[in-house]
Inverse folding.
């Protein structure tokens, strides 16, 4: 029999995450009820904050919805949900305009600055220039404006340093969600937050790999939490590696991204001795879809035994580089590289999770009362490979749609008057080094064994190690007092297992999943999502 207690916080909407998805949803429901938004560090810390290239949307005079849809479907290698793609593309421009109304200052065309025409960048896989951006600081500008708007809304309470640990769900099938248990990191206590509707917008999983463009928050907590609560996940094998991150220097423990937009402006990939190579891999050269470019670089590095390839920005021109890419210019310069004069050494890094919690574009998951939007969700939009700059767009459209539904549906149900006390751990001494070691080991094995190019043997090795790690993590989790580190380790290990399981199952090469032992596409067996049913483990809420 579980001990029950009144919820610590009672609200109408609980939002987990303060990236573009969480903030958009919170604004969408703010006039319908009380909103509590929890975020595990400072409010702006998110993948969104580091987005460089921009947000894809049809504004160009030579562009059309159909072209954007076709580009998205082509990149997705047969696995996109065409209906979801169409909705996303068609609703994109209106929502980008709404961002502008909220106060986001996107870059304008120089010739008619102030006249309102957006500057549109070009990225890999796009047949037209359609990337709306704010220089190369697009994400920071979006976060700034959305957070300013959020702060002006009295119905929204933002709780920083509040880490969601587990969802509060009952045992019905399919389950029902009534909020989440949240660790207040400053007070070091678990709070139960009861809500009529809960949104998971906890972002990506990049920190599960050794080299990643993602900031430390991206440990897949949302996916792991939903999976434990019984929600199914899909397409976890499709991990996107960005082709170009700065080699040899990290910024705050992140591989520093060199935006694909630089190739869109004319930058060229070369081997160390100055030879171009992308024309040997794809007719679109350096503007081929991202999976192709990342694999081409991986292949050149292996073939030549080099540690990096070069990205030559000189065709863009000195003035234009400084104007269009101030972040890349300034950051590289801080490492002694003047990108206007010398090529940048680059290598691929884990970047984006195309899989996630199975959801539709309205955010519905398998669990009633639980919505998922943004990078932690798998809505079918990206299929086997996300088209560049479609993720901010997907998060924006999906969170907006979900808020439109949740604002009514939430009031068709109540919040519980009592929830079980979260099972607290005993405070046995476990060295912090054990947590750190397991985390690093998981990240390294994912990089080495479940990386850009996979084989059956590497995947089997990965799975054996992950099984051992899983037991260790469970042991640590049972004994160790809850902390950011132990919770994140559990998430990283769960995500590793989900990625490896999906990768082992898919006996073909498609999109981002490339297995040297199964090089052919197998449409007959594999033109479908890889789905793993949720676990429905404790803690659960047992309605009396
Ligand atoms: P995020 O923005 O990552 O937000 C997740 C939030 O959840 C964060 O606030 C985090 O702190 C919080 N959180 C996580 N776990 C918990 C927990 N347990 N409890 C409480 N809070 C939690 N996409 C594009 O379309 N265009 C680009 O140009 C682009 N450039 C990129 C550049 C970089 C360097 C990176 C890393 C990604 C880029 N992407 C780009 C991808 C894009 O930024 C993300 O997919 C998108 O921002 C995800 O938004 P989100 O709201 O789903 O998640
Ligand atoms: C980039 O600027 O290259 C990143 C774009 C993206 O991830 O969509």
């Amino acid at each position: 029999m579980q001990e029950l207690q009144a919820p610590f916080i009672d609200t109408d909407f609980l939002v987990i995450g303060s990236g573009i998805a969480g903030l958009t949803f919170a604004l969408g429901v703010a006039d319908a009820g009380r909103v509590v938004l929890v975020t595990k560090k400072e409010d702006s810390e998110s993948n969104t904050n580091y987005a460089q290239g921009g947000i894809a949307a049809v504004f160009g005079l030579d562009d059309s919805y159909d072209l954007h849809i076709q580009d998205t479907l082509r990149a997705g290698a047969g696995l996109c949900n065409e209906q979801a793609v169409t909705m996303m593309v068609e609703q994109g421009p209106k929502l980008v305009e709404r961002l502008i109304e909220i106060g986001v200052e996107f870059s304008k065309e120089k010739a008619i600055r102030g006249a309102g025409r957006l500057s549109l960048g070009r990225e890999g896989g796009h047949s037209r220039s359609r990337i709306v951006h704010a220089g190369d600081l697009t994400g920071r500008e979006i976060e700034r404006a959305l957070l300013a708007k959020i702060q002006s809304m009295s119905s929204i309470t933002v709780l920083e340093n509040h880490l969601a640990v587990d969802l509060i769900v009952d045992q019905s099938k399919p389950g029902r969600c009534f909020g989440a248990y949240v660790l207040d990191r400053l007070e070091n206590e678990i709070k139960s937050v009861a809500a009529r509707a809960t949104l998971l917008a906890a972002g990506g999983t990049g920190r599960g790999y050794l080299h990643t463009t993602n900031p430390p928050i991206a440990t897949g907590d949302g996916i792991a939490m939903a999976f434990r609560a019984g929600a199914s996940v899909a397409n976890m094998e499709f991990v996107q590696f960005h082709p170009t991150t700065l080699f040899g220097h990290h910024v705050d423990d992140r591989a520093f991204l060199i935006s694909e937009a630089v190739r869109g402006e004319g930058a060229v990939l070369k081997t160390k001795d100055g030879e171009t190579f992308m024309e040997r891999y794809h007719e679109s050269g350096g503007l081929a879809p991202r999976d192709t470019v990342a694999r081409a670089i991986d292949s050149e590095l292996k073939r030549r035994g080099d540690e990096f390839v070069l990205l030559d920005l000189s065709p863009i021109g000195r003035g234009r580089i400084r104007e269009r890419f101030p972040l890349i210019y300034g950051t590289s310069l801080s490492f002694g590289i003047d990108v206007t004069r010398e090529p940048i050494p680059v290598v691929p890094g884990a970047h984006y999770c195309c899989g996630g919690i199975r959801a539709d574009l309205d955010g519905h998951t398998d669990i009633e009362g639980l919505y998922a939007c943004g990078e932690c969700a798998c809505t079918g939009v990206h299929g086997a490979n996300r088209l560049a700059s479609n993720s901010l767009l997907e998060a924006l459209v999906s969170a907006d749609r979900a808020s439109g539904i949740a604002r009514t549906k939430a009031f068709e149900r109540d919040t519980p008057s009592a929830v079980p006390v979260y099972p607290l751990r005993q405070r046995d001494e476990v060295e912090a080094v054990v947590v750190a070691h397991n985390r690093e080991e998981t990240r390294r094995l994912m990089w080495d064994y479940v990386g850009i190019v996979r084989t059956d043997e590497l995947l089997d090795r990965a799975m054996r190690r992950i099984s051992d790690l899983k037991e260790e993590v469970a042991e640590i989790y049972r004994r160790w007092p809850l902390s950011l580190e132990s919770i994140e380790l559990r998430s990283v290990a769960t995500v590793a297992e989900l990625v490896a399981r999906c990768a082992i199952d898919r006996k073909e090469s498609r999109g981002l999943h490339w297995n040297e032992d199964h090089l052919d596409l197998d449409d007959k067996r594999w033109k479908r999502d890889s789905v793993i049913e949720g676990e429905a483990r404790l803690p659960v809420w047992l309605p009396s």
About this structure: The radius of gyration is 22 Å. The chain has three domains: 8-51+136-237+354-412, 242-350, 430-515. The chain has a mean pLDDT of 94. The first strand starts at residue 4 and ends at 5.
